[in-house]
Records
---
Amino acid sequence: MIGKVQQSNHERGTAGEVIAARNAVKEYPGGILALDGLSVTLYRGEMVGILGPSGAGKTTFLRLLNGSLTPSAGEIRVLGQSLKGIKTGELRRLRSRMSLVQQNHNIIPSLSVAHNVLMGKLGKISTVGAARMLLYLTREERDEVAEVLGRLEIGDKLFSRCGELSGGQQQRVAVARAILADPEIIMADEPIASVDPRTAEVVMNQFRRLNSLGKTVILNLHQVDFALQYCTRLLVLSRGKLVFDGLPEDYRGREIFERSFAGEERRVCCAEA
Ligand SMILES: Nc1ncnc2c1ncn2[C@@H]1O[C@H](COP(=O)(O)OP(=O)(O)OP(=O)(O)O)[C@@H](O)[C@H]1O
Ligand SMILES: [Mg+2]
């Protein structure tokens, strides 16, 4: 299918909806159209892979979903709540139900791995509790962090300073922090970009585990193979538009094209058959 969106989930309506974008447009200063009228509904329990070339709008989309960017036009709904005009307190409460692992990891280099990971809980604990955490960690907190780090194969880094870790290890700290937040929706922006293929499997298996526990998982990925292997649904973005929405098996072997403004067709993605 060229330049068309597969209809696989569209007939489901709002039952089980966790995220809905309706004609979402994001124009950055300088007239850069990062998202150009994106409409899509994501459902509870899906594991969604978002693919597309660099600059397609993938990061912009995730940042609209967690409310750190606002759309120039259109509407975003998360967990039944519209983000349009949402109050700061409401957005904070909503964010405690979703986690975004950012492309730049967003960790604090001067703090230990344990403290960075425990920050995932900040939305759910009191200010006093957060201050106490900086002074000392309870046995339970240490064990909880160690368990998640162990599953990501960086259990030995519990008390290392984050700034001393490799890029791939920092990336896994950011994933661990999102896991500890225990959200209903977990989003990650290129979570396996800085790790080797075997470690990528370790990380993807943790996302699959979360998904099997009922969480909705949304991943921006450049690795088509991993997207095909792990995701239950694929979205492909190109120049801010959705050019494919469907099952991995329907994407496999298919070439996705976009039509440029000059009327030429250009291949943007191609999965192995
Ligand atoms: N803060 C910003 N100000 C201006 N333009 C921006 C800003 N952030 C992103 N853009 C532009 O918006 C477009 C979409 O960017 P975005 O980061 O969403 O792409 P992406 O699909 O995540 O790319 P990548 O795969 O390289 O991470 C690009 O043209 C980018 O240059
Ligand atoms: Mg990006």
Note: DSSP finds nine helices and twelve strands in the chain.
---
Amino acid sequence: MYMQTIVVTGATSGIGKALTKHLVHEGHTVFAFGRAEDKLNHLKDDIGKAKGRLRLMNADFRSLSAVEKALKQLEKALPEGLDVLVNNAAAVPGKKAFTDDGFETQYQVNHLSHVHMTKRLLPLLAKRRGKVITTGSDAHKRARFDYRDIHALKRYHPFRSYCRTKLYNNMMSNYFSRHEDNVTFFVVHPGRVKTDIGTKDTNKFYAFVWRIFTRKGFTPEDTVPTYVMLIDAQTPEQGYYYREALHEESAVAKNTDYQDMLMRHALRELDTLFL
Ligand SMILES: NC(=O)c1ccc[n+]([C@@H]2O[C@H](COP(=O)([O-])OP(=O)(O)OC[C@H]3O[C@@H](n4cnc5c(N)ncnc54)[C@H](OP(=O)(O)O)[C@@H]3O)[C@@H](O)[C@H]2O)c1
């Protein structure tokens, strides 16, 4: 089996952690992104001895300069290219808050930082005819696209903003797949999964609702086979996947005019910061 070099974001808990553990034990090299040194060290201890290699990457996605710093380290470490990028990190903070870069937190952590990671890693991925797998959600089907409120700032509600950013995951993936010939793009809906995402940086009520909502959900480990199938397959069909099969995404996510509007906006925002 060809051992691949894979970047996983949000690798310190839930789905990303289960996936990282599996991939390193299979023998792949994983660059695991986390926002907290202690959680990254815990991941390393948890994995212990394995066939593959684990490289820890510390970057809080609320800071695009921290993401950029980590990307520069990756470029140095991977002159031969990258096989797979898994954009998986996300947050659902209970209150509207802004990052140091001036963006609403979910907009930056769940969407803009993925755009930045993907765009910057495309040359490395193209060298290996690589893949980008973004963890999305069927929650995107509840969102609409409002060009006048791309950051979902009007009447902030954590779930509304979350659904909107999950819609953006599909839109980003569809946009890049129309523009890049040497890289294939996928979005995975993991299903309802028993993780702590809905309990972090939020109030007791939302945390309680999340626990009820996911109490009969999948385990993070249950979601791993879909990612592994996409990583291992020679030429899987681009698109939106659930439980190892293609899955229907919303008409809004497929709308190419909306994709162009969203992505021109995001790429302009990134150019303003980095050019
Ligand atoms: N759970 C579900 O039912 C479900 C359903 C559909 C889609 N999803 C998607 O699945 C993905 C993984 O979520 P999960 O359920 O596994 O939850 P999770 O365990 O909370 O994983 C989210 C990951 O993102 C990281 N993260 C959060 N804020 C960050 C920041 N500012 N900078 C860098 N990393 C940050 C978290 O880091 P920490 O470990 O430090 O918290 C964590 O590793 C997300 O994209 C989510 O939208 C989940």
Note: Residues 31 and 123 are 17 Å apart (CA to CA).
---
Amino acid sequence: MHPSFATRLNLDLLEQNYERWQKDPDSLDSGWSAFFEGFELGNFDGKNGATVAVAPAEARRDLRESPLQTRIDALVYAYRILGHTIARVNPLAEKRPENPLLTLREFGFSDKDLDYRVSSKFFLDGRQMTLREMIALLDQIYASSIGAEFQHIQNTRIRDWVRHRLESRIFAPSPSPEIQVALLRSLLEAETFEVFLHTSYVGQKRFSLQGAEGLMAILDTLLHKCASDGIEEICMGMAHRGRLNVLANFLRKSLNVIFTEFTENYVPALVAGDGDVKYHLGYRTVRKLAAGEVEIRLSANPSHLEAVDPVVEGTARARQRIRGDTEHRRKVLPLLIHGDAAFAGQGIVAETLNMSQLAGYSTGGTFHIVVNNQIGFTTLPEDG
Ligand SMILES: Cc1ncc(C[n+]2csc(CCOP(=O)(O)OP(=O)(O)O)c2C)c(N)n1
């Protein structure tokens, strides 16, 4: 229906329909809906936007004075770029981080506008919703317990892929009860292991995983994905934090052996060590899963943090050659687990990343996990 149906001659009908539309926009056909949206849009500027009483930078003022649709699109875009800066990724923080560039006022809105019906052709295929709902969805996607910084990716296909993954995630069904139980089990195993060491080897130096047991759930998920995606081998490296837990619960190294190595009177043949030798040993295993077998190699680790990174990449590349996987490099996955301070501070991390794009060194992609306990000896969180 063309909006010319709406003239002063049918003012009563117009008012009735406007009331109906405000209560339930779906109760009218799309012609009326479009008309009322336009009507509200035209009315919008006088209510807010241009009258915001703060002196903003020129560019921001331009935005606030822009038409409704421009501001809605800008809001979506801003969440994609900046959502991660207000994401609740720090479980120790007392309050959620704030970013003045992501406030209603920044886009020329106020609380009064939250019930406006809006849509953006850039967000969820132009789905209609209230401004309140749109912000809640953007918040859930871009600023919940997962933050994603990805808009800098210049390859539009890759960027769109990431965006699609993030935006479709919230409509995906939650994991099956079996998976939820399996993940809970891996958290409990990790926790029980640390508690046992803590109570059985009192006073022993221990690089506990407590507080970061989520690592084990990530590794478990990754392992199952490897098996179902045809990855035959994982070459991994990590420092001391959580290493015994990974050896016990991920590589399934015998607990007997781990605990023997943990006792004070255990003298390893190879090193005149500092008591940390158990945290340096490598291991190899084959995990048998319903979807197939995956071999896992954990490289031995020196005291020098992150020095193992290029070693793991070299090992992975060699294993790819041995497995005849030099074209696509999809059978052997390098996996590096870092500490937050070491990852930020050690130049060898950047060196390893740089080498990754050279034909002679590429391994087809590495899975990096940073175990962020927010401390690194004397490095405080704000410095890290
Ligand atoms: C190259 C190098 N520099 C310094 C050290 C000394 N050192 C051992 S652990 C550590 C802190 C590491 O912090 P982080 O990476 O956050 O790991 P966390 O122990 O907190 O899990 C430092 C500086 C080292 N082992 N290697």
Note: The CA atoms of residues 83 and 142 lie 5 Å apart.
